[in-house]
């Protein structure tokens, strides 16, 4: 076999698969960690005696940390070498996981999740860089099929694994399980990854970096403080929102000045990229924000075990597993403007089922709703991002990929914060029970007691109450979830507006290699 035929072979040889194994291990850790924690939020509420808006920061802080390091990955990989940086990212993620398991307060857990996110945010972009260099651009499609395994299995396995660990051991194990995987991945990476060859890199936009993430964090902190204080007039709400908003606006204005900005907002001159980004951003806020609440409904209103809640979430992942490969194939053949609106329609149909929830809603209906939503999800994200990047010039693709990945993480952070605030605010409207206060001296509400009794049935034996009060509290809690789902449903419907502007004709690809062959560019979706 000649050298030329080897170079152009589409098959993944043993050397490439050895490198892919390291990347898949890192992907499994970072992707599973997002979905595993989603079923643990109610457990964090009872464990740390915190509101839902507060514990949702274990997700918000993690995704903000991801957004912080994604633009640093390319610069740091050139500066220090991909192997060295990948092992640093694995180490940070593993240490962060171990520290999360030691947290005694919700504040500590949020802080350790930031450290975990700083490592996790580099794993996927660096992994894609390592795999692309190992296999060459002509085999990226096959590489994405390999990486697609953890991407597809994460939404199914994460909630089930998290539920099983919490029920059979404790919540600490959803983090401790990363320790042996991290150690194995580090040893594997040391022997499997090729030696580094660091090169001079573009300058890093430190000014932009210190404006964007702190600005977003401050703004979202102010928003999530609203249910606790009950008014925008309180300094704890408006002060961080004002400072954070000012930093984000300053970042946007500043980003057009540097030669190599943290986020190249000039790319929004490309109409296809702009429309795709707006569509994705609105969709992510609604879908990811409400998605965190699905297992919480099963746990807090229906009184299911954490494992049962994870199993009840499985239809969504199964639906995505079915349509994601189909959507990837269609993306090269059918204009995205003809497929994505159909996929969004499936999500809207499925989402509507959750706007009707009450304490006795059929699990068959909810399971079918999740499955249909999963079908739509699998046909939405990858095609939108692939279509956006195909219209960019070759030298713009790295910056475009960074831009859409960060928008995705910011959308997830905003969604988690906003939806948890709406739910907490709704639950706070429940009627207080006369003469009953919690350990902090705050009045216990009907919904609060009903939710607590669903998670700890023995509580009702210690505190005999009228069964009608529990029934009324559960009904109020279910309506609070339904109201929150209505807000998310409305946002998903709004996504049809930018989606209607997506291209309905075949787009000429701008991304070509020197020989004129089209190069498929991977889009990393956490």
TrEMBL record:
Cellular component GO terms, alphabetical: plasma membrane
Membrane topology: Multi-pass membrane protein
InterPro entries: EmrB-like, MFS, MFS_dom, MFS_trans_sf
Main location (coarse class): membrane
Domain Major facilitator superfamily (MFS) profile: 19-507
SUPFAM superfamilies (UniProt xref): MFS general substrate transporter
Keywords: Cell membrane, Membrane, Transmembrane, Transmembrane helix, Transport
Subcellular location: Cell membrane
Protein's UniProt name: EmrB/QacA subfamily drug resistance transporter
Organism: Micromonospora violae
Origin organism lineage: Bacteria, Bacillati, Actinomycetota, Actinomycetes, Micromonosporales
């Amino acid at each position: 076999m000649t050298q030329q035929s080897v170079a152009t072979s589409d098959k993944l040889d043993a050397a490439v698969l050895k490198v892919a194994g390291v990347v898949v291990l890192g992907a499994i850790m970072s992707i599973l960690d997002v979905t595993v924690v989603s079923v643990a939020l109610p457990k964090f509420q009872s464990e740390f005696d915190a509101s839902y808006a507060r514990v949702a920061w274990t997700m918000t802080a993690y995704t903000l940390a991801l957004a912080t390091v994604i633009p640093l990955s390319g610069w740091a990989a050139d500066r220090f070498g991909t192997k060295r940086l990948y092992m640093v990212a694995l180490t940070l993620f593993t240490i962060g996981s171990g520290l999360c398991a030691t947290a005694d307060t919700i504040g500590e857990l949020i802080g350790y999740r930031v450290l975990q996110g700083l490592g996790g945010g580099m794993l996927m972009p660096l992994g894609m860089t390592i795999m692309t260099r190992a296999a060459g651009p002509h085999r990226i499609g096959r590489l994405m099929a390999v990486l697609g395994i953890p991407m597809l299995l994460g939404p199914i396995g994460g909630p089930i694994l998290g539920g099983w660990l919490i029920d059979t051991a404790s919540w600490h194990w959803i983090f401790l399980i990363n320790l042996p995987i991290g150690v194995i991945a580090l040893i594997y990476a040391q022997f499997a990854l090729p030696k580094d060859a660091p090169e001079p890199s573009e300058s890093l936009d430190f000014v932009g970096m210190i404006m964007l993430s702190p600005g977003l964090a401050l703004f979202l902190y102010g928003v999530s403080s609203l249910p606790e204080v009950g008014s925008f007039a309180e300094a704890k709400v408006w002060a961080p929102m004002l400072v954070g908003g000012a930093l984000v606006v300053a970042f946007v204005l500043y980003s057009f000045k540097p030669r190599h900005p943290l986020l190249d907002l000039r790319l929004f001159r490309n109409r296809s990229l702009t429309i795709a980004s707006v569509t994705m951003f609105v969709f992510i806020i609604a879908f990811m924000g409400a998605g965190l609440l699905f297992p919480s409904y099963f746990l807090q209103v229906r009184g299911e075990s954490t494992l049962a809640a994870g199993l009840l979430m499985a239809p969504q992942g199964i639906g995505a597993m079915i349509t994601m490969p189909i959507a990837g194939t269609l993306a090269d053949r059918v204009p995205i403007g003809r497929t994505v609106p159909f996929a969004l329609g499936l999500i809207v149909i499925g989402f509507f089922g959750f706007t009707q929830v009450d304490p006795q809603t059929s699990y068959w209906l909810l399971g079918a709703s999740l499955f249909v939503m999963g079908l739509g999800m699998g046909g939405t994200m990858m095609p939108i991002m692939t279509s956006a990047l195909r219209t960019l010039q070759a030298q713009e693709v790295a910056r475009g990929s960074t831009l859409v990945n960060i928008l995705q993480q910011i959308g997830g952070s905003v969604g988690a914060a906003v939806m948890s605030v709406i739910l907490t605010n709704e639950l706070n409207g429940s009627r207080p029970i006369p003469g009953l206060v919690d350990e902090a001296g705050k009045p216990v509400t009907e919904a609060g007691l009903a939710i607590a009794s669903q998670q700890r049935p023995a509580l009702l034996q210690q505190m005999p109450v009228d069964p009608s009060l529990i029934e009324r509290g559960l009904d109020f809690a279910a309506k609070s979830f339904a109201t929150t789902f209505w807000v998310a449903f409305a946002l998903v419907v709004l996504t049809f507006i930018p989606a209607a502007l997506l291209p309905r004709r075949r787009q000429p690809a701008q991304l070509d290699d020197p020989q004129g062959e089209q190069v498929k560019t991977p889009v990393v979706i956490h």
